[in-house]
Design a protein that fits this description.
Shape: globular
InterPro entries: CHP03879_regulat_dom_put (IPR022285)
Number of strands: 2
Strand content: under 5%
Strand order of the largest sheet: 1-2
Protein name: Putative KaiC associated regulatory domain protein
């Protein structure tokens, strides 16, 4: 079910960050993701959070979202049109077979709807479980988002190198990863997407 609400022109980055964190909460937190071995969902969740916010709060077209995030138009469409109720049944174990839906998209839509219904989407404060994050030490996407918080996009390599200095992501120094990216990077979601692709090479 789509959430119908009048756009208020809030900060897209902050709203997407809230949707991302709420998505993790809906999944039971980072520890639950570890149990399910689904930490690979984090970059997809971040990407989906941006798609949902851009679609519902900024009224962007699929083409505009795809261009802004560096993803395909079809991916943007799959995220935005995912059946969140089927995805909810799946993650709650009430659906035996994996639905033919964009899982991260469905979760992000659930998180967005919850934040809107509770009036929390545009609140300033974002609660991140730093202690849990530090203990797990494998949620690189969350660490990257924390490091770049408040950074104005698009950004170049030097700005990112300054913020991410000293990070090691899946055994690779962040400087090595940044050398392979194309610049400027237009958004946090595009940054996570490019890092993810670099790690897969």
């Amino acid at each position: 079910m789509e959430v119908i609400a009048k756009p208020k022109g809030g900060n897209i980055d902050k709203m997407a960050e809230k949707v991302f964190m709420e998505s993790i909460n809906l999944l039971g937190g980072l520890k639950k993701l570890v149990e399910y071995r689904n930490l690979t969902w984090l970059p997809s969740l971040a990407e989906a959070a941006y798609v949902i916010v851009l679609k519902n709060e900024a009224f962007k077209t699929y083409g505009e979202i795809a261009k802004e995030l560096g993803i395909t138009e079809q991916t943007a469409r799959n995220v935005a049109t995912a059946d969140e109720e089927k995805v909810k049944e799946y993650i709650e174990g009430r659906l035996e077979e994996k639905p033919n839906e964009h899982i991260a998209g469905g979760i992000a839509k659930l998180a967005y709807r919850k934040l809107k219904e509770e009036g929390r989407l545009e609140e300033e404060e974002v609660v991140i479980r730093h202690d849990e994050i530090e203990v797990l030490g494998i949620d690189w996407a969350v660490h990257v988002l924390v490091r770049i918080k408040g950074l104005d996009f698009p950004v170049g390599k030097e700005q990112l190198a300054e913020r991410l200095e000293g990070m090691v992501i899946k055994g690779k120094n962040v400087e090595e990863i940044l050398d392979k990216l194309e610049y400027p990077v237009k958004s946090p979601a595009e940054l996570l997407h490019k890092i993810k692709l670099s790690l897969e090479e």
